[in-house]
């Protein structure tokens, strides 16, 4: 069974001996945090991740956590060091995470620097870790590529009893905007020192999955914990169990709204799956946006997103339920339909006799560029 919710591990001393194992078997993305390593050490770790993901033919994304200068008396961002953004560009990471954002000025600056270095393809994750970020959540979500909820820091700036409802609100708003949302800090905190989680931690992770998070990120549990592998396996077991349960609510958010073709197709797929049994969805997507539209409605089967290169595949590493697959050639409509079955078999998502659902734009209509998604097809493998 393919795990839909993604898992992110923070690298540190505890992951040194198990890095290849967790890249091959456990994680969808890796976080590089300067708190757990100096610059030279982080360069080595980034290079090692790139080498291992190529060796094992996986699309493990690399997230770089930006250093920042903030007021000691209160968690407010003063500035992000430009040299750290340049470091991320030079190391060609897939995402950068921006902390303690009270307004959009600093992250606009981050995007400007990425543009200067011709690295606009690096995804911008904005951390919601202070009261000001929460108060500007709608504006931040509209600007960011992904959202990260840092509950530890956020909980220091608001009454603790408010945090559960605030978390649910942020997750729902990110879901509605088709932005990946990551939940982090103190997910399995007891497993820093113990091989088993507490019951409260299991319930916490499970409820986050039910609420709609795209990814669970472990920090100290993997960076410095005594049981990093066990912590990752625990998250995996919780995710796999919850995803098999029929406990996810019906989403009527866009039922009566006007929308684009790709978005409308995504909704129609959700309702098609209530009437027919398919093993997976294959979507040919130039930008990855159609895969995000489909994933937003939490289909009960995996979404195999066919993209043109590894960088675009890694950009989907944080999107719930999406399995990227790389096809560098531009295919005709007939080739898309024909190859979709073999892609599903290669990804171990379907076997002979199963039905799959295919969605794409028709590239053989005389247009220069690949058109947006405009058809749905169901085929037997």
Automatic annotation (TrEMBL):
Ranges in coiled-coil conformation: none
Tree of life domain: Bacteria
UniProt GO molecular function: ATP binding; kinase activity; magnesium ion binding; potassium ion binding; pyruvate kinase activity
Assigned keywords, A-Z: ATP-binding, Glycolysis, Kinase, Magnesium, Metal-binding, Nucleotide-binding, Potassium, Pyruvate, Transferase
Reactions the enzyme catalyzes: pyruvate + ATP = phosphoenolpyruvate + ADP + H(+)
Keyword Transferase carried by entry: yes
Regions crossing the membrane: none
Class in the EC hierarchy, top level: transferase
InterPro entries: Pyr_Knase, Pyrv/PenolPyrv_kinase-like_dom, Pyrv_kinase-like_dom_sf, Pyrv_Knase_brl, Pyrv_Knase_C, Pyrv_Knase_C_sf
Enzyme Commission code(s) on record: 2.7.1.40
Family membership noted in the UniProt record: Belongs to the pyruvate kinase family.
Protein name: Pyruvate kinase
């Amino acid at each position: 069974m393919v795990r839909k919710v993604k898992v992110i591990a923070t690298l540190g001393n505890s992951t040194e001996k198990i890095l290849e194992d967790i890249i091959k078997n456990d994680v969808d993305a890796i976080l590089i945090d300067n708190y757990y390593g100096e610059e030279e050490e982080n360069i080595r770790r980034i290079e090692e991740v790139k080498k291992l993901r190529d060796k094992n033919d996986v699309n493990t994304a690399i997230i770089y956590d930006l250093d920042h200068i903030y007021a000691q008396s209160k968690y407010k961002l003063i500035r992000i060091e430009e040299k750290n953004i340049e470091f991320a560009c030079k190391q060609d990471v897939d995402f950068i995470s921006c902390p303690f954002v009270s307004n959009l000025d600093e992250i606009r600056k981050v995007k400007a620097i990425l543009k200067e270095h011709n690295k606009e393809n690096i995804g911008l994750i904005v951390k919601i870790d202070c009261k000001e970020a929460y108060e500007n959540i709608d504006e931040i979500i509209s600007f960011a590529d992904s959202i990260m909820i840092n509950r530890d820091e956020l909980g220091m700036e608001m009454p603790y009893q408010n945090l559960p409802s605030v978390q649910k609100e942020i997750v729902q708003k990110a879901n509605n905007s088709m932005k990946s949302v990551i939940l982090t800090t103190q997910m399995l905190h007891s497993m820093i020192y113990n091989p088993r989680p507490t019951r409260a931690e299991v319930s916490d992770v499970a409820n986050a999955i039910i609420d709609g998070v795209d990814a669970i990120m472990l920090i100290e549990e993997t960076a410095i914990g005594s049981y990093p592998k066990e912590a990752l396996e625990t998250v995996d077991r919780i995710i796999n169990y919850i995803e098999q349960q029929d406990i996810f609510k019906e989403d009527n958010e866009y039922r009566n709204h006007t929308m684009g073709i790709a978005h409308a197709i995504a909704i129609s797929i959700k309702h098609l799956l209530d009437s027919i049994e398919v093993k997976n969805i294959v979507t040919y997507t130039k930008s990855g946006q159609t895969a995000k539209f489909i994933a937003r409605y939490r289909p009960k089967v995996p979404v195999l997103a066919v993209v043109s290169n590894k960088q675009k595949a890694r950009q989907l590493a944080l999107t719930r339920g999406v399995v990227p697959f790389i096809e560098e050639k531009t295919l005709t409509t007939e080739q898309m339909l024909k190859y979709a079955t073999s892609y599903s078999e290669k990804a171990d998502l379907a076997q002979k006799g199963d039905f799959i659902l295919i969605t794409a734009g028709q590239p053989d209509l005389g247009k220069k560029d690949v058109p947006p998604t405009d058809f749905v097809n169901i085929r037997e493998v």
